[in-house]
Hints:
GO terms for molecular function: dolichyl pyrophosphate Man9GlcNAc2 alpha-1,3-glucosyltransferase activity. It contains 21 helices and no strands. It is mainly alpha-helical. It has one domain.
Amino acid sequence: xxxxxxxxxxxxxxxxxxxxxxxxxxxxxxxxxxxxxxxxxxxxxxxxxxxxxxxxxxxxxxxxxxxxxxxxxxxxxxxxxxxxxxxxxxxxxxxxxxxxxxxxxxxxxxxxxxxxxxxxxxxxxxxxxxxxxxxxxxxxxxxxxxxxxxxxxxxxxxxxxxxxxxxxxxxxxxxxxxxxxxxxxxxxxxxxxxxxxxxxxxxxxxxxxxxxxxxxxxxxxxxxxxxxxxxxxxxxxxxxxxxxxxxxxxxxxxxxxxxxxxxxxxxxxxxxxxxxxxxxxxxxxxxxxxxxxxxxxxxxxxxxxxxxxxxxxxxxxxxxxxxxxxxxxxxxxxxxxxxxxxxxxxxxxxxxxxxxxxxxxxxxxxxxxxxxxxxxxxxxxxxxxxxxxxxxxxxxxxxxxxxxxxxxxxxxxxxxxxxxxxxxxxxxxxxxxxxxxxxxxxxxxxxxxxxxxxxxxxxxxxxxxxxxxxxxxxxxxxxxxxxxxxxxxxxxxxxxxxxxxxxxxx
Length: 506
């Protein structure tokens, strides 16, 4: 993100917004997590149940086990801002359908009207939070022409994994992702306190937003250390620190008033007994579990330390680079690298956490169209077992095909002559420059890579249909998807780290 670029045409913006709304409505017509699956249902029921709990019980009981709050039945396990969102939405939806959030009697409530209300609540969240953040972000991407800005907007609003998880599977990730994007816009435009507050709000909505914390920390620290004089440095660090502490205090104070409330909230947010991963997720620990039985060999405590060390080692190059050479370009790469490091190596990773990787990669589409094309396709494939259980195979195919058709490679110069002579320092600041021939080569590479991913996905899907899994290995097809996707994500992290460390010194 950098200075202002050319304004995009309003026709293009309207077209992207219209398409984004259309695909959300279309995906919302399908099934969702746990639909009709008595007695526990799924994520849809969890979100509805949280509205039921927050509207009918006092704040002090939201995270505590009581006779009216059975934590084993979808107890709230997201941070405070998510609980307050459920409280607000619950009060609004109660005006239209009181029965859908009635205490105890509404478990598994799935009328056509309540489904419509719930679906609309996700669309409204997108429009109020993610859409404005995407509009602001597209205007700040460096090097993007008016057409390039439309492509950035398309990548952010038509990103298939985010659409199918929020509007198909059923969640509200757009709120935390939109707040995090707003925080990123704030810090790269010099509004460090505002950016810190917005990012902390994102973190207090979904704690998996922690994936971005190293990028924010290193960039803000690097900018603070560039201030002139020790006093200015201390003041800059203190302002951001106070903004973080103040935001957390406001969000957590209602729960801290009850004795033991902080500890109970932390236990709900970080249930370490669940293990290093749930289901099949395309990260290092799950992919290697077929050879190394990590859970049996190490135990949870030792495995948590190993995950923490591995994640830190994967984060360090990107963090140190931004502390030494903070830049808006580098910050975008650092967000992607930080999220990839957490997704691949941290403890207790969910398959849906890949959404945090895709958002900053969407911002890099002007400079990294190949990665921006490949990452969402591989991410969709990695989540297919989850989507298949939800009955979203048709939406999976349609969204993947639609995203494949987006012209992502047109975000930069395509027919330029030789670029003007630049010094080595200027080249490092401006990043890679593409001549017309360079863009033609990239086009070919992009489509060749996309074709390879499509071919691999077809083979994996054909295997699921044509080859019954052996009784000894009933989840072999899910594991095969992990074994394909995990190395791709690893290569992606290595490449993006290489680009950040070699091309983006300020």
